[in-house]
Task: inverse folding
């Protein structure tokens, strides 16, 4: 596998070049298959590219009716009395994607998916972790840790998180045929999305993570 490095003049140029590359990949893939499965990221880096892609969709250069998207990550523990309030909180990645990309599209994607973190009640999660320490373990050699829930935990809530929230999202991606192209950024300490540096790649395809403070900042 080769890596192509492209040096851009500035943020706007980078965003334009990235959008053109993505457009060509989408067009090529849609000549080969019925749907394009698009992996998306949040953060400041892709926002300009998203605006350019939205313009391309709205001008008819990209067929959004054949695109299905999956986002990398979502927070657990945002303020809100229920999942709906948490999803629409300004810090949620669901809200971010609506503001920065999905809401700009005149013709929407077939489906957009963001990990189901907002369905988790953080207070109940912490209580279950404290009450059932035998049901889980921490993985990772740096400050950020993966909370690995064991098979068939005693806690019904932790079982629900493992089966529905984590494995359910991975299965949804698999059922769609896997990601054709994923947009990612690399954090200052080497993390990719909420996969913190030092967390092993073996094991679950979707992680529950206790974040490094640097990632939150």
Result:
């Amino acid at each position: 596998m080769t890596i192509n490095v492209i040096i851009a003049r500035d943020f706007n140029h980078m965003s334009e070049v990235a959008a053109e590359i993505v457009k060509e990949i989408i067009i090529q893939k849609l000549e080969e298959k019925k749907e394009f499965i698009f992996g998306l990221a949040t953060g400041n880096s892709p926002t300009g590219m998203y605006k350019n892609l939205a313009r391309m969709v709205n001008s008819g250069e990209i067929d959004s009716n054949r695109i299905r998207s999956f986002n990398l990550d979502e927070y657990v523990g945002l303020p809100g009395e229920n999942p709906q309030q948490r999803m629409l909180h300004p810090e949620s990645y669901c809200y971010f994607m609506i503001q920065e990309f999905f809401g700009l599209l005149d013709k929407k994607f077939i489906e957009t998916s963001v990990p189901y973190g907002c369905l988790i009640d953080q207070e109940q999660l912490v209580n279950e972790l404290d009450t059932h320490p035998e049901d889980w373990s921490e993985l990772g050699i740096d400050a950020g840790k993966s909370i690995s829930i064991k098979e068939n935990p005693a806690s019904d809530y932790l079982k629900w998180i493992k089966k529905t929230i984590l494995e359910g999202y991975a299965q949804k991606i698999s059922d769609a045929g896997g990601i054709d192209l994923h947009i990612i950024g690399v954090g200052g300490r080497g993390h990719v999305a909420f996969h913190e540096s030092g967390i092993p790649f073996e094991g679950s395809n979707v992680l529950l993570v206790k974040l490094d403070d640097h990632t939150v900042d």
Q: What stands out?
A: The chain has one domain: 11-216. The radius of gyration is 18 Å.
